[in-house]
Specification:
Elements: H1 2-24, H2 31-37, H3 45-70
Helix pairs in contact: 1-3
Length: about 70
């Protein structure tokens, strides 16, 4: 289960990014030509989405641990 979550967090935004790039490319155009011609700024944020997802997961995990620890009593 964890492997599925990790893979979906990391790979789904990257797959979406490459699908958008492929859709916007002209016929016979290489990726290098596309990046030089178009600045790709409209959907470049999708590359950083996996990092954002990892930050959210780690912060949620730390929050849950903190909630368990702070309620401990002797």
């Amino acid at each position: 289960m964890w492997l599925t979550i990790i893979l979906s967090i990391y790979f789904i935004p990257i797959i979406i990014f490459w699908m958008i790039v492929y859709h916007d490319m002209k016929k016979g155009q290489s990726i290098e030509e596309f990046i030089e011609e178009d600045n790709c700024a409209d959907y470049m944020w999708l590359i950083f989405l996996p990092l954002y997802n990892w930050i959210i997961i780690i912060s949620e995990f730390m929050y849950r641990i903190w909630n368990k620890i702070k309620k401990l009593r002797k």
